[in-house]
Write a structure and sequence with these properties.
The complex is a heterodimer of chains A (260) and B (469). Chain A is α/β, with parallel strands linked by helices and 260 residues long. Chain A contains 13 helices and eight strands. The model of chain A has no long low-confidence stretch (mean pLDDT 96). Among the domains of chain B are: 258 residues, NagB/RpiA/CoA transferase-like (Rossmann fold, 3-Layer(aba) Sandwich), CATH 3.40.50; 67 residues, no CATH class. The model of chain B has no long low-confidence stretch (mean pLDDT 96). Classes of the chains: A alpha/beta (260), B alpha/beta (469).
Chain lengths: 260, 469
């Protein structure tokens, strides 16, 4: 965190909202803003953003992907950093935009430069902003799902756990196979629902076996999938994005829970 | 083998309902993963060996013609013969010509390339009897099934199933006792196979490696049956694909260190056997004839193209063992010889993308296969590249393509996108507020048939953020 003697201007962060947070869970977006501001960043949410382009990319449409990539780069390249509360979308921007645009001489350098400044939220807070304290409390036992892109493309593993350990009242109960895919996989889960069902059921069984009150994770796709399956199974386990817990913003009903 | 790759989705759904298969898969999954993890953790230089292995394979592929020539020369020098086959048909013809005649009893050790070229069927059509000698292959031969895993062909079978199978099939040898313990099952197979070993005319094996500097072929097994297959019959035929060649014995040892650890979590497989030419005058045993059939079957086209890296594959099966989709459905659902991630790349390249459209898509791109691949093959990237090709060739589902196109169009117009999504989430948010989720929703059955859809909170983040500013 910026120290008192630090005279440098606060770093500017362009928040990539991500389409799923934008549509389903704005609370996570606000939690991310709160955490980033707490860490001393000046946060902007560029208007010209929709989605990172993964639906097109992973369904084979390179042309649409490239257009969306250019749109994201143009909207975000003026910031010191680009941060999203999603390993999946940051993985896309960081790892894949340079590849998507590698034959486009005007854009490949810009893609590379942006890639170097992109961070998943918890990794950014811990690794870049050196956040070591969290002002939040959450009296619950939680288990953590490591989303695949964040884990394997970006190395997000310890950062959310370290931050969670600073939240008052939280006990972490690790599940079996926390690093195994939950069966979301973007459009995979609607193209192959039965295979996805098996995978997410394995995941919810591992979650349930921990006897934790709550399952947390860093990617809305996985969390919607896991919450949807848990609710279908009649489970009472609550699902939150890790940012909501870290920012003390769990006053909203959990993912998939109603007002009643 | 019979191909049913276009039935993937249906086969996967059947496999998910197959209680016995699910029991066998559940048992296998953890074993492979845990053993590999322990083996890799015990070898601090694993990453270094991995890099070295990749370099060896890349060097070899860059000079493939040179090393294959050298290999051929060395085989000839040691008194063996080399047969080149561009296609599966040519490879089968070459093997049949070596065997000659009809009505021979042929032993076969485990060889995935022989499955790929359909060798058993070709030999049976020519009137020969084929006996698989690898225990797993023997079991599935009795069951008249293809392998479901590249190193554990019968991994989909439970012990109870094998007991029943042996009971039914071994009665003709006078073995009528019901064997239920693993050791007894193995002993019974040994008894039956031993008579075959001593009475066969030809032994066919695959090869994990071909050593250019010595003209040796290498097999790696845990049973020793492969050794008997290549030593006892009069003729030994090796079927191997072009990318199996490595320059030297030193190179082989590097790859062997990765292979066993990645495959079974062993530091070394029990038998690592080199065959160099036929029996020499002062040898106590060995075949009188030694033939190597080297198969291309589409591989040379992969050299230098976007699937080049796939030619580094050493067939360890780690990508299968770590693939959550493979673990859920088993190997048969994939519909051809090579299942799992490596198969989902190779199969479309070998039989045509139009015949295997589902395979590159039936993957969440979770990256675990690429992470464990000892040869650092970027499997997820290649699966995605195949999706690019499907899209270009319009092989993907037309409705999905149109939906994607509409979404893509909207996603490139942020203002309009935000207006549309703003209305959508407001409506869904209002309807879903009380329950917090939807049990079903028009146009979302792919999602809601297996899980609820959490309701949006009501307004989009963009809208709320602008309001707050």
């Amino acid at each position: 965190m910026a120290s008192a003697q630090d005279t440098r201007p606060p770093p500017s962060v362009g928040l990539f909202a991500t389409c799923l947070i934008d549509l389903f869970r704005p609370n996570v977006g606000f939690a991310a803003v709160k955490l980033l501001e707490k860490a001393g960043c000046r946060v902007t949410v560029p208007r010209a953003q929709t989605c990172c382009g993964q639906p097109a990319y992973n369904n084979g449409d390179q042309q649409t992907t490239a257009s969306i990539a250019r749109q994201v780069i143009a909207a975000f390249e003026s910031f010191d950093y680009v941060v999203a509360a999603s390993g999946s979308c940051i993985g896309m921007i960081k790892e894949h935009y340079p590849r998507v645009l590698k034959n486009d001489s005007n854009w490949c350098d810009r893609a590379e430069q942006l890639a170097a400044r992109c961070h998943e939220l918890t990794a950014f807070l811990v690794d870049v902003m050196q956040m070591r304290e969290v002002e939040s409390s959450f009296a619950a036992s939680v288990t953590y799902h490591d989303s695949c892109s964040g884990l394997r493309e970006l190395g997000v593993k310890q950062q959310p756990r370290m931050l969670l350990s600073k939240v008052g009242g939280v006990t972490l109960k690790e599940m079996e196979d926390s690093e195994v895919c939950c069966g979301f996989g973007g459009t995979f889960c609607i193209k192959y629902p039965k295979i996805s069902e098996r995978m997410v059921s394995d995941k919810t069984a591992n979650i349930t076996a921990t006897e934790a009150d709550c399952i947390l994770g860093g990617d809305m796709g996985c969390l919607l999938n896991i919450a949807g399956r848990l609710k279908r199974q009649g489970s009472l386990i609550k699902v939150y994005h890790v940012a909501e817990v870290l920012a003390a913003m769990t006053d909203q009903p959990a993912i998939g829970e109603g007002e009643s | 083998m019979q191909r049913s790759t276009s039935e993937f989705k249906h086969q996967a759904e059947v496999a998910l309902q197959d209680v016995t298969l699910q029991r066998a898969m559940a048992k296998a999954k953890g074993g492979f993963v845990d053993k590999r993890r322990v083996a890799v953790a015990r070898l601090p230089e694993f990453e270094q060996i991995r890099a070295e292995a990749k370099a060896i394979k890349e060097h070899t592929l860059a000079h493939l013609d040179y090393y294959l020539d050298q290999f051929e020369r060395k085989v000839l020098e040691s008194g063996g013969q080399v047969h080149w086959a561009r296609t599966a048909e040519q490879a089968c013809s070459a093997v049949l010509a070596i065997i000659g005649g009809s009505g021979k009893q042929v032993l076969k050790g485990k060889s995935m390339v022989s499955e790929e070229i359909g060798l058993n069927a070709a030999m049976e059509r020519a009137g020969h009897t084929v006996v698989e000698t690898d225990l797993g292959e023997y079991i599935i031969q009795l069951a008249d099934e293809p392998p479901s895993h590249i190193i554990a062909p019968a991994v989909h079978k439970t012990r109870d199933q094998i007991t029943a199978l042996f009971h039914a099939e071994h009665e003709k040898y006078g073995l009528t006792e019901l064997v239920t313990e693993t050791e007894d099952i193995v002993n019974e197979a040994r008894q039956v196979l031993r008579t075959k070993f001593l009475s066969s005319d030809v032994g066919i094996t695959g090869a994990n490696f071909l050593i250019a500097e010595t003209g040796s072929t290498v097999i790696v097994t845990n049973e020793g049956n492969g050794d008997l297959t290549q030593i006892l019959p009069r003729i030994h035929i090796v079927t191997a694909s072009i990318e199996k060649v490595v320059p030297s014995l030193d190179d082989m040892t590097v790859l062997l260190r990765l292979l066993a650890r990645s495959a079974t979590g062993q530091e070394m497989s029990s038998y690592n056997t080199l065959s160099t030419g036929p029996r020499r005058a002062d040898d106590q045993d060995g075949p009188e004839e030694f033939h190597v059939v080297i198969v291309d079957n589409g591989r040379s086209e992969m050299l230098g193209n976007e699937f080049h890296d796939m030619l580094r594959c050493i067939r360890c099966g780690a990508c299968l063992n770590h693939c959550p989709v493979y673990s859920a459905i088993g190997g048969h659902a994939y519909g051809w010889v090579y299942p799992g991630p490596m198969g989902s790349v190779l199969t479309p390249l070998m039989i045509g993308l139009e015949n295997a459209r589902d395979l590159p898509n039936a993957c969440t791109l979770n990256g675990r296969c690429g992470e464990v691949c000892p040869m650092s093959i970027p499997l997820p990237d290649m699966l995605r590249t195949l999706r690019f090709k499907e899209h270009e060739r319009k092989l993907s589902n037309a409705r999905a393509r149109w939906a994607l196109k509409a979404w893509g169009w909207l996603a490139q117009r942020p203002g309009l996108y935000q207006a549309v999504t703003g209305v959508m989430t407001a409506v869904l948010g209002r309807i879903g507020a009380r329950a917090g989720r939807f049990r079903s929703l028009p146009l979302a059955s792919g999602w809601t048939q297996v899980r609820d859809l959490p309701a949006p909170q009501g307004a989009t983040f963009q809208r709320l953020w602008r309001k707050r500013q």
